[in-house]
């Protein structure tokens, strides 16, 4: 039974890493920065002609994998921040799982869900305002 518990400490994080590596490989080879590529466009953008909070995320990830942080921030600045927070969360969760101690994480803050929702809604609204400087946020 102890061996099974020890394996579970590695299976979950390992599965996440394999999934992320697979998605990153697909994004790397599909090149979402090229118009008319293999990866589909955002359904919200296709149907409603609006930039959703996630629009540009694939291009931002592609740019980050190629070391172009400026382009990644142009495509989706909030998405880049979200990726950093997700990576931090994964690392703290994994370390806590392996050590048996729960580590501090931003998700445990009392207002974290409300802040994330607020930032997402504000990002959705400001990137769809049709006047400068907001129109430059469209991708």
What does this structure look like?
The protein is mainly α and 139 residues long. The chain is built from 5 helices and no strands. The chain is globular and about 55 Å long.
Mean pLDDT, all residues: 89
Low-confidence spans: none
| Element-by-element helix/strand order | HHHHH
Give the helix tally: 5
Principal-axis shape: globular
**Rg, Cα atoms, Å:** 18 Å
Number of domains: 1
Helix coverage percent of residues?
A: 55-70%
User: What structural class is derived from the secondary structure elements?
Assistant: mainly alpha
So what's the oligomer here? Answer: single chain
Distance between the termini: 52 Å
Count all strands and give the number: 0
Indicate the proportion of strand residues: under 5%
Summarize the main sheet: none
Helix-strand blueprint:
Elements: H1 2-30, H2 43-48, H3 57-65, H4 69-99, H5 112-126
Features of this protein?
mainly alpha, 65% helix, globular
Short précis:
By secondary structure, this protein is mainly alpha-helical. It has one domain. It is built from five helices and no strands.
